[in-house]
Amino acid sequence: MQFDEIVAVRKSSAAWRLLRADNAPLVLSFLGRVFVDDNIREISESGLISLLDDELYGLNQRLGEGTYPRAPKAYLDEWAAPSAGWLRKYYVTDSDEPHYDATPAVERAVAWLQSLRERDFVGTESRLNTVFDLLRQIVYGTNTDPQVRLAELRRRRAEIDAEIDAVERGEVSVLDATRRRDRYQQFGEVSRALLSDFREVEANFRGLDRQMRERIATWRGTKGELLDEIVSSRTMITDSDQGRSFQAFYDLLLSADRLDELDRLVRETQAFSDVADDRLANIHHDWLDAGTRAQDTVRRLSEQLRRFLDDQAWLENRRVMDLLRSIEASAYSVRDGRTDEFSHEIDSPAPTVVLPMERPLYHRAPTVDIESDDIEYGEAEGDSDALFEQIHIDPAPLVDEVRRRLRRHDQVTLADVLAESPLSQGLAELITYLSLTDESFTKIFDDATTQHVGWTDEFGARRTARVPRVIYSRPRTTGPGDRIDAIETQESR
Fold this sequence. Notes:
The protein is mainly alpha-helical and 493 residues long. The protein has helices at residues 3-12, 14-20, 24-37, 45-63, 72-80, 104-115, 125-142, 146-168, 177-217, 223-239, 241-253, 256-270, 283-333, 395-406, 414-420, 427-434, 480-492; strands spanning 43-44, 87-91, 98-102, 411-413, 442-456, 462-473. It has a 3-stranded antiparallel β-sheet with strand order 1-3-2. The chain is extended and about 120 Å long. The model is unreliable at 478-493 (pLDDT under 50).
């Protein structure tokens, strides 16, 4: 980096300001523990004030009364101010209480501090293997020569065949404790870096949204050009390398087979006592929650942008009406007065003349006599039983069925649920499954993948519906204590 670039980063970087702050130890320790270590992506103001109050009380008791004299809310307002930029303060839907989330600057500062720690073990073998794997993927993944691709595939097949032969002879090569620690250390670093990347992706989406709002507010061209500008800008981050990589990662994470394999590998890795880390036991669930939150951020920003454009159209229509009313008021003011300044000329006036005798005479409408004697009451034709034979689906047994499946698995799909409990009420029961809501699980629609659901109607015909894949998953908790309560509740059920 050049001298001028470092000076510019020192002035504008929120992470650098955080490291230089007087109360940097308090900010980094508290925000790092809440938002980075516990992976909390959204917390209410009252909840964050309660946690900070406990933190300040413990520090004042240990370091001396008056070390941190201000109220917790005063600290939060200072950290969320634009001059600091360490917390993002915002309002969520259907809530009057502000919520908080850490900015990417906190992630960078915490990661830099963690890199300064003295490490008793520095692994290099796994990184070298990763370098070789990445280079092979780049070289052979972009090569279009069939002979080169075949040679690489045959080399990998020969290695696999040699390993199979060695295992059949009883020669099993296993990783020792050092190699396990090396690879687990790299797994932990990459896993935590992914969570940090999700928060930065969200910040990039919000930055793009602010740029578009500013562009709309200062636009002086036509509406068609404005919409073209918005659409092209909206797809800019999605079509970028970062956007495509994020979407590919999220699609891979939503794959049920890959997610089951990842869950199995993490659980088996945690069985080794020399590398086990409780914070990484559910890291794949944290990835899924963070990715879902990033997708929800894009959806909410799109809805807000649509409402913003509607407001702009309403303001333009109101301006047009104000102009029309001003013109009407001016016309009324000069209607009865004569002035030399106001004149109007017409070409070849042709007045319309209507004589009184040309108007038609009045004709009385004929009256109609209505007889109401001997009225015959009609009888309805057709069967009306269909109006009273409506099917009502009780969602409670369906919720219990999903809960029962989630006791054994962290995630289940609608197809998994229907495999044990097929549809008995047809399409109405399927629609009820798609609209289930319950506080004990969350529901995700994967529009990229479709599934076929079948049932037999009352006439004995086989029906099939094609629906997007529906994933039911356990909700994330906000703290260690809440996680223990959730586990005990699931076991009691």
